[in-house]
């Protein structure tokens, strides 16, 4: 008593709140940090606000900040059991930002998070993945056009020593000596740099431009196919999307002549096929265990969804993908991978409860005929063509003129088989060389 009460600390003073801005984050008073947390959680808990905030950040050229604003919604536990259409819009915008930034890791994180959010909506996940593949494909095509335009803009004479000597060879006259020397100095520095790069790397200017502009986006497109296939390969509802992505990946390898990616794709598909081969036995065992649990009055364990290769629809999808693999590997002359595709088709035919339709088998034997014709195996080439004609006759979908043409092709292929057993020259009996 009698002593004055000490003043409270300065941090406890009550001051009017300023308008919310980014500078509030560095304000020293504690209640401002609480205010900032409340403001940020609005975007975290409300997907519509997060999407609106992302559009605002994109408008001011801040795609990374927009990515963070959307990431909080997709990774929130609040939305894992409460799917809404706005989540699909957020995932689509997230994919667009990932493609814009060229970030494969962010793309994979987005698909993993949205797969959890859309557990009961597989069609929504399929729409997001298809959007990713389409956007990545368009961005790679745009990069290819940019690379070609850049290569065309550069002077082709910069890659030749003759051009260097011609441009640097001085005139005998004395007129405009200073201007000529300045032009020669600028040109010589560019040409010397180009020649030095050619000597060190062994690549031309066009190849270096492709490595700088096109190669990163080709890698992004390839990784997009790989991530999409890994996301849905064990989901029975999205098997059509899985094989659609696989066939698009094969077309990508053929368009850009990506042999290493084609081999990796074939290895991945074979690994996925072998992992699904024993799913039928595992599913039967789980069904028997569930029936026994119900008979005993117990609650059975939930049965896991598995991809069953014996189902006719699944089997047809796998065979169509292997046909595409056979076509692309033969075009790229990767004969070992083509042989593996033939082995996979034989395995699928053994697993089939019913034989495939004649039209499917006819397409398969035509692909085999192309492979054997290119490799010079005349006997197998003629046999494949004979099977192809027989199956087309069973299907009954061809006209009389087409059947006559097919019979002539089989006859010519049989006559081209050497009698001594020596191999036929490559391409001599291929269907493309027979009128």
From TrEMBL:
Limits of the eIF3a PCI domain: 48-158, 178-420
Any one of the GO CC terms: eukaryotic translation initiation factor 3 complex, eIF3e
Record-level GO BP terms: formation of cytoplasmic translation initiation complex; translation reinitiation
Keywords in alphabetical order: Cytoplasm, Initiation factor, Protein biosynthesis
Molecular function in Gene Ontology: mRNA binding; translation initiation factor activity
Domain of life: Eukaryota
Protein name: eIF3a PCI domain-containing protein
Organism: Sexangularia sp. CB-2014
